[in-house]
Every structure is written in structure tokens, then in C-alpha cells.
Amino acid sequence: MRKTAPDRLPTHVAIIMDGNGRWAKQQKLRRVEGHKVGIDSVREITETTCDLGIPYLTLYAFSKENWSRPKEEVRMLMFLLGLYLEQELPMMMDRGIRFNIIGERGDFSKSLQAQFDDVMRKTARNRNLVLTIALSYSGRKEIIRSVRLLCEDVINGRVRRIDERAFRRHLYSPAIPDPDFLIRTSGEMRLSNFLLWQVAYTEIYVTDILWPDFRKQAFLDALAEFAKRDRRFGNVKDF
Ligand code: FPP
């Protein structure tokens, strides 16, 4: 079994972590058990990303649309999120991981927001990996928000030219480069409203593996596939 990392690695990996529910169903467990084991995958993929020296990892943990899931599941996901932050902070400090959030933070309880702030503040000086978790995130909403803020800039005379640079300044995390690799687990061929602006030239990889089973070797296999891709950014190679 191949254990080594490919020589050409992406700078920013984004992941749509899907399939926790199906994994739990296959094991004849409740959905929440899939989310719990999913956290183990989050840890293993984060640590592997860090070990490989990839500087940015963005994980889609909770979409704006996910609020409409059964109340009990949402409640458990919020509980697991709090637990995750509490448990993983020492690992983040140990490995030099900076924690970041994109999405509508104001949708969360005051205590979770305080926890987000605390973990972000404590990890702010870490330099090895920026771990961004998308929470109450919607790509369309991020675009609309950016357009609204840009309009305000124009009205206030702060911006004269509407272009990609001016727009980008109002994304949730403008300093983070666009992902060069997007992984989606559990087989669905869609973007599900994730990073719609940022994935313009991103290489997409879909695996049938369900998120709780997506571990180091599966990640290395995905990265090996990335290394083989011919990225042309709309250009041609030989003509
Ligand atoms: C998709 O599986 C997964 C989610 C909606 C939540 C992702 C959450 C985790 C991995 C655990 C919590 C993460 C953190 C960072 C605390 P699904 O429920 O849509 O699965 P299904 O499509 O098989 O039903």
C-alpha cells in the first residue's frame, strides 16, 4: 500500500465532508454516531494536511441549509462542534494550526460564538496551517454579502472601480487563496453551495468513500490524483 505523498501538492484543499448519515445507516447506528466518527476523520485529515506542509485546509461542516434538519440532529451537531473545539485546541496549539471560520457566525448561540472567538484568538499566531471550518455557510450568501459591502464602498467613495479585487476584499476570508483542490466524499457530483466564487479554477475530486471512512490513505490517493491533473486555467499547453 502506498504511504508516501505525491511530489506536487495543492496549496489549499477544500473538502465537502458528506456521508455521515449513510455511514451510520450502514452500521445500523443513529445518524449522530456518523457525525461523531466524522470528527475522527476531521482530526486525521487535519493532522495529515499539517504533516504534509499544505498551508490551507477548509472543511464544510455546516451549511446554511443544514439548520432545517431535524431539531435533535441540529442540537447534537452544535454539541459536537463545542466538544470538537474544546478537545482539539491542544492539538491545534501543538501543531501550529490557526483556526478560522467562514459563514454566518451570528447564527450560533452566544456561548458557541464565545468559543469560536476564544479558539481563534488563542491560535491566531500559529503559522503551520490555516484550518477554516465553514459554519452556517452559503456560497450564494457570501457573494451577495460581498456585493452589498462593495456597493457601500462605492456609495461612500472608497471604491471607484468594481472589479474582482474589490469584490474579493469582502469575502469572509479574503487573504486565503482560492482552493486548488476540492474533495467531496460519498459520491455526489455537486457543489452544494460551497465556495462558489472561489472554485472557479479548482480541480474537483469525488470519491465514493463516506466521510467517516475517509482517512489518511484515501486522502493521499486523492492528492496523488491531483498531482496528475493538468491545470491550464483556460489556457492551452501545446499548440
Ligand atoms: C454530511 O453528512 C455531514 C454534515 C452535514 C456535517 C459534517 C460534520 C462533521 C464531520 C462532524 C462535525 C464537524 C466538526 C468540525 C465539529 P450527512 O449527514 O449529510 O450524511 P448523509 O448525506 O449520508 O445523510
Summarize the structure in words.
The protein is an alpha/beta fold. It has one domain: Undecaprenyl pyrophosphate synthetase (3-Layer(aba) Sandwich). The chain has helices at residues 20-26, 31-52, 71-95, 110-123, 139-155, 164-168, 216-228; strands spanning 12-16, 56-63, 97-102, 129-137, 181-184, 203-206. It has a 6-stranded parallel beta sheet with strand order 3-4-2-1-5-6, with helices on both faces. Strand 3 (97-102), helix 4 and strand 4 (129-137) form a beta-alpha-beta unit. Helix 1 (20-26) crosses helix 2, helix 2 (31-52) packs parallel to helix 3 and helix 3 runs parallel beside helix 4. It starts with 11 loop residues before the first strand and ends in an 11-residue tail after the last helix. The structure holds farnesyl diphosphate (FPP). The site of farnesyl diphosphate has 17 residues, from helix 1, helix 2 and helix 3. Farnesyl diphosphate binds next to helix 1, helix 2 and helix 3.
Features:
Undecaprenyl pyrophosphate synthetase, 239 residues, binds farnesyl diphosphate, six-stranded parallel sheet, single chain, alpha/beta
